[in-house]
Protein 1
Amino acid sequence: MPETLLEIREAILRRGSVSEGFAVRVGEFAVRSSELLAILGPSGCGKSTLLDTLGLVLRPDSAEVFEIDLGGGRLFTGLHRRDESRLLQIRRQHMGYILQSGGLVPSLSIRENILTACHFSGKRFDRERFSVLVERLALGPLLSRRPRDLSGGQRQRAAIARALVHGPSLVLADEPTAAVDHKLADEVCHTLRECAKELGAAVVMVTHNRELAASFADRILDLGDPLNRTVTRV
Amino acid sequence: MIQKLFWSVRFAFAEIRNEWLFGIGVALAVSSVVTPAALLWGTKSGMIDAMRERLLREPAIRELVGQENHALPIAWFDEKTADPRVAFVIPSVRRISLYGSVAKSGSVEDFVSDVAYLPTAPGDPIGGGVGLPADYEGGGVPCMISARVAESLEAKEGDAIAITVSRIENDAIVQVSLEAKVDRVLAPGDSGAMAIYLPLPVIERIEDYKDGSAVPLFGWGKGVRDSMRTYDSFRIRFDSARSPEDEAAVIADSAVRGKLPLRATSEKGEYEAVANRDGIAHGEVLELVRQFRGLDPKVLLLAEAPFEVESSAGAAGSDGWLQGDPQEWLSLEDFEGIEAASPAQAKDDPPARVWKIATAGGTSSLRLRLPAPVASGSRVIVAPEFLGVVGAAKRRIIDYNTDSGEFRSPRLAYPGFRLYARELEDVRPLRLECEKEGISVRTNEDRIDSVVYLDAALGKFLAFVVVAGGLGGLGALFTSLYLSIERSRRQFAVLQILGIPPLYVFLSSFLQAMIMVLAGVLASFAFFQMGSALLAAVLASEGGPNDGFCELETGQWAVLTATSLGSALLATVLARSRLRFKDPAVVARSE
């Protein structure tokens, strides 16, 4: 029975101010270990808001339950914690983030980009995991290059390596295939799923690509579905 | 922790490498502010310091010279010597005694007149602070001569020169000379005067000679007029009463010729002269008596207790006046002098008698060498002049000068001085202090003022340039760094999403700014070296100073570097707000 990594019940998630911002209501939502959860939906339905809340970049306005248990015991409970450094610590230790176009630091080499996550995770550097990821993602010849010298697919592979190298429990991918073609999108999703499964990490992926989600996701949350009650606009 | 710091350093270098053109731009911007400030500051420091140093090296600038004759007690000099603002002070004798002529030894024709004889001592800033020792008697009299004297006499170090001292005796000029060895020829900056510097005791002996005293050490004899004014009054008695006409003539003649006006006493044929202030010298008595040659006048002096005195030419009368012929009186040279204590009478010196007397300086002893042995308790015949010495000793301190064999009033004060302030800034307060004491002094404050004024003016100008340039530089630096951070907003947002602590991102930004600023300061240093070398070359070609015109010390570079780094830190701190995002995900997705 997969354990629940993250659970949200009856929460209001908001981006921006109360008057001008955007808010969604979350009925009941959970992420389980080692699953690949795809979040689908049209623009403006709250996919990114939900993802950023899961990544602790945003905090819910209110919630009946907001619990995170990312391995090693419950790390965060309740809504009233205002300790930004604690949130940062949870993010860098237990989460991996993949942005649309990779989100690599342009001035750092691919090796330095990948290792940045290790330097700040507070965990011992796992050389074997690094080697496995480099090999699996075919990054060996690219390690000394800088992001601008790489193709879109190569950049996303490097971003996947960076998201996984420190052994996170949860990987959050924000439209990781938006900037690549269909074939490459398959490759990226495949690689992401395989690597995550090998390392035992759950993946929450926001995407517009329904086909891709159907191909690779263990579970799909379609916010555009009229029957959806999990996440609704308020 | 170390790993994170290393990441910050690597990230800073990576950012610079990634945007090296921007880095060069910032470094040049910093350099464009620091270089002119450094050049101006260096010019101010170099030029003003050089001028100050030159002024300090030139002792005359810090010199205060008493303008008139004063009676400055020894304690005044002790007080000045102890004053930390005073580098050196030396007393001086009367100004009129300080001029004479010098010649090269053996040369009669080559002499220089109107040369100032000035006292010196060890520590005298003139001549590099060495001065001349007071203990010169073993190796002859040393002297330092000014460059002008050296040039006039064509004298050099080691040469012997003859110093001429003159005085007037019987309306005639009498000259003596003293040979001195040139110890040092002074640089023109040390003394621009026609001057010869001698140890203070030599100068004092020159004054003694001018005052009529003998200086046996130099072989200079005693003058006709005794300098010791010992008598308060004396009387002249003629054998017979004078007619009213003769009496009027006597009184008138004495007033005109002897400058000691006589007045008639209640005794017929007896006239009295009373000292106005300083007392009457024995020579003056003799001179007056000579006026009445042929009239066989007798001189009467007031015999003072407690001495039992007999004159060689008379005895004390009932009225207490001692009568005698001053020509026959014993000379004061027969006295051995006044001693500080009462020494036991030496067995091998039976003629000497010692009296204890109360003097102005306390109890002293008078030792009298008698011309012939006398039995104990005998009445002693002494020179009446001795009575004058005793009388004077009761009123003031009297010394016996063993060199000249004279009774003299010891020097309790000096009429002049030469003083050197330790720092340029000490000259004015010392001058004001002297003026407050009623002592007028001559200084070179105008030259000091010009340097101080230039220093202040350049200081204000530098401050203006530094403030204006610094503000501009800070603004440019801030704008550059701010824009640099602004351009990296997405990158910083990504780092925040990844959970990188803002502190290390800030540290990296600061390191980046610091490296660029340091590069700018290094470039400024190089530009400064080129600029100062160029300035020196230009000045040298114009005949000006070619060294040290534009210089900055290590400490001054440290100040410039610290200020630049401070500006970089300030700019980074101000831009720090752009490093943290309330919603980094929006920023990360925005581009």
Protein 2
Amino acid sequence: MSDAPGGANVEGDRPVVETVVETDDATVTENAELERTLGLSGGLAIGIGTMIGAGIFVFPGLAAGRAGPAAALSFAIGGLVALLVALPASELATAMPKSGGGYYFISRGLGALAGAVVGLSLWFGLVFATAFYLVGFGYYAVDALTEVGVAVGAGWVIPLALVFGAGFTVLNVTGTENAAKLQNGIVALLLSILAVFLGFGILDALGIVGEPDAPETFAPFGYAPVFSVAALVFTSYLGFAQVATVAGEMQDPGRNLPLAMVGSVLIVGVLYVVTIFVATSAFGADRLAELGETAMVEVGREFLGPVGAFAIILGGLLATMSSANASILSTSRAIYAVSKDAILPREASRINLKYGTPHVALGMAGGPILLLTATGRVELLAEVASFLHLIMYGLICVALIALRRDEPEWYDPAFRVPLYPVVPILGAISSFGLILFMDLLSQLVGLAVMLGTAVWYLYYARDVRLKGAL
Amino acid sequence: MHVLVPIEILKGETVPASLFELLAPANVTVLGYHVLPEQTPPDQARQQFEERAVDALADVAAGYDGEGTVWTRLVFTHDEHQTIGRVADEIDADAFVVPGAIAELDSLLVPLTGDVAVDNVLEFVEALVADRDVSVTLFLASEDTPEARELLERAATRLREAGIDAATRLVTARPFAGLLAAVPGHDAVVMGEAAPSLRSVLLGEEAERVAAASVGPVVVVRRPDDDGGILKRLGRAVEDAVDDVVEGAGEGKGDAAGEGTDSTRK
């Protein structure tokens, strides 16, 4: 394969490759400038807002049921893997501060086939993740209705999830209000709710307030489930790389991208571990498992009565909403990035004249999301999402090593991974390793998606070359 | 003298010939910007709209028939205020304009109310009027005190010495309402950039409110000592503190230092 970018897809479209100048405030192209408008807080809000929904409000019951209190360790392992990937991703993002994130790094570092598989898989990975967040939202919506006296039963989880999924998609097409500011506010509110709740929970767990808790075996099922649960709950960490999908809009990217990515992983990682610790000391793993997806509501009720339950329901609704919404937006940016490189038809990145929004890409996100949401298979959705993201994360680490071994002239990252090459090697091994601990069905679905994307590439864009093109 | 004229290019905004006539003595940069919702990466919009925007902007700039030079800039952004501020800094603009049309250029309204750099505004007005037959009304909303009268008189004297027909008007009404009442009978407003205040953050920039309420253009003379308002300074202090903590802070600090030296110009 030649190192020069170019080639055309079956429609004759070619990748858009051009020379641009990046400053801290704007990207300067030949005829126009692209303002960088997102600050550090905006980047953190995207990272935290995407991640925080699942780990705290959906997984505690499921995870504790499988691994006991050692589920806290599973979350810690997931966080460590995320951190090992966030560091290499930060270096690549500062070297290539463009829309597209992981897809961009891999296509430039490893070539068009790997890029196409990752870029299209990321689209589907985000679709699976969003469907998972929406189902989680459905559970909280049913709980919220029950709490205000409208007992509708679990049969309403999926219909409610579908209605809101369709609603978010339409809002994203027609809404021109400042969605990012809203997202910042929601994340701030969530963090406040969690700080109060977890603060109280820690005091209780340590026996300072409330009744002494019965001691429980830390890992009642041994340590093997700790890893399989880590693979399951890794979905709670899909989000730090979404910061890289808006890298082209981030101010002072050399400083803000690494801070936002690594910072959001550290913040949510600590919150997750503390949440599991608090939840398992309040109830014990068996009881948590019985309570299922909305176990945290009962934990809130245990600590603070109806107010606690209400606060957790509100938190759960906001958190799953913000995760779903942020992921729909990332999906549309992922689709744009591959379409710009002629791996998907150009039409995919058309912008609506009336609203100025990418309605085709948003539709390509929203449609499949609703189909998957309708299945209602929480754990399968979560694992396939993790599978597809982990492939990308592993390849991000490989791409970093490939670029570093033979640094192209344009490769000048403002942030360099500490402990190179140990961090990216461990990042790649642990990302791929985590996949081995998943259910067979999830692995098969994930592989099928990847195979499908490879077939698409070979049919549609076999001649497109992207390696080495900045 | 360099004036920035921002227009929302793809919404059909343009620079009226009469506005270019007002700005004839100045160098002009026409900033065509296009605001996108958060859902849309600016680059994605550029792929689709760049050609059309470049053409439209060239058409607009061709309308300039002044003594200076006209340049164009095209920016796709999520935040037009940030963009206008950045471009104004980069070209070191003396003023920017909230566009509007003028019937015939006879008279300017120049409010000196509030915390504005009076000398700076007058210097700009002198250069803008030059040797044209344009009368200037100096406006001040204030208590009727000797200091207020003296401020107006001193300003009027300075303009008259430069050969400009200057009148003064002192009103005791509330500043904004008083200014709007004075707009009829004038073709354009030239005002100093006020220090950003909580009020301007809540209600929008004063110049934009004046422009919305009057029909004509509003020329805003930028503050010479442009270190921003208290919110901006506070924001920068926090950023600097973060930079100190973070490794590799060299770049961020360099910026702050750069703005520091910038503010001592003139």
